[in-house]
Amino acid sequence: MKMESVYLAGLGTYVPDLVTTEQAVRSGWYDAAAREASGLESVAIAGSLSAPDMAVRAAEVAVARSGRAPEDFGALLHSSAYHQGPDGWSPPHYILANTLGTPITAMEVKQGCQGMLSSLAVAGHRLAGEPRKSAVLLTAADNYSAPLVDRWTTSRLSVFGDGAAAAVVCRDRGFAEVLSVGTYSAPAMEALHRGAEPVFPPAVTVGRELDYEARVTFWMDEWAKGNTPPMAHPGEVLQTALDEALEDAGLTADDITRVCHPSATLEALRDQWLDPLGFSLERGIWEHTKKVGHISAADVFIGLEYLWTTRQVGPGDKVLLFTGSPGFEAGCAIVEIVSGPAE
Questions:
Q1: Is 26 exposed, middle or buried (0-12, 13-18, 19+ CB in 10 A)?
Q2: Most-buried pick from 246, 266, 284, 320 (CB within 10 A)?
Q3: How deeply is 240 buried, as exposed, middle or buried, from its count of CB atoms within 10 A (0-12, 13-18, 19+)?
Q4: pLDDT digits (tens, 9 = 90+) for 266-302
Q5: Which residue from 211, 202, 173 is spatially nearest to 336, judged by alpha carbons?
Q6: Is the pTM of this model over 0.85?
C-alpha cells in the first residue's frame, strides 16, 4: 500500500530497567545452555508498572517531540499482545485521558506483535479522509511481569521484555516520511499458535499459563503421528509483504539502509527473518534487540527510535520496519528519514 503525505512527526519510548540474562541464570529463571545459544544479554523488566502507564510515558515524549497540540489529533490507536488491566475497561481511553485529554476516538488494535505497524496503516487511511484533523497518536505497551507468564521459558524463540512505544503520525511534515506499508497472511497457521488449547473458556479465566512451547510440543507430537502441521515459513510470508511494500515505494531491497526487526534469539532472528530476506545481521539492530528482549508490538518502533536518536540513520536513508503476529501475518513499513534529532 503506497502512502501519500504520511509522516512520523514524533517518537517516544519507555524501556524499564534491564535484568541481565546472566543474573537470570544465577537466579534459576533461565537455563544456562538456552542463554548461551540465544545470544541475549539482558531483558527490560517493568515490575508493577502497568502497560498503559508505560504507554502514557512514551506518548508524552512522542507528542512533545512532534510539536503538535492536542486539538490536532483525531484518534488514538493502542496496541498490545497481553492483558492490560481490568476486564471491561478501556486502556486506550486511560492513555488518552492521561495524555491528550481530548474527546476523540480511542481504540485497541489487537493484532499481537504487529499491532502498531497495522495501526500505522489505519492512521494513514484516517488522515486521508479526515481533513479537520492532522495527526493520529499510536501507542503500544506490554508488561509480562504477570503470574500466568514466565517470560524466560514461554517461547524458545525469544524472551519477553516489558516497555512501550508511541508515534505521532501526521499528514503534513515530520522527521520521517512513510513511503509504504505491506502485509500478507497465512491464516491456516493460526492453529500453530492455538495448539491443543480450547478456544473456550479463555485460558486466563481458568488460570492457565501462557505457554507457546506446549503448543509447539503438541504439533511435534502430531507430526510424529503423521498429521502435518499447517506450515509456511515466516520468512516467505514476510517476503510477500516486503515485495508489495518495495513495489509501492518504488524501491528495491538494495535501497534499504537499515532494518528494524523484532527481538528474538540469534538463531531465530537469522533463520526466520533476516536470512530468508537476504539482510545481514549488520543491517539490522541486533546490537539493540539483544539487550531489551521482545517488547511485542512496540519492538520495531523502539528500534527505529534507537537508530534515529543515535544518528545511525539520517536524511535520505530508507529504513524497513517488519514484524509478525499470530495468525500468521507479517507486515512491514518503509520510511525515509527526513531530518535528524535535535541536539
A1: exposed
A2: 320
A3: middle
A4: 999 999 899 999 999 999 999 999 999 999 999 999 9
A5: 173
A6: yes
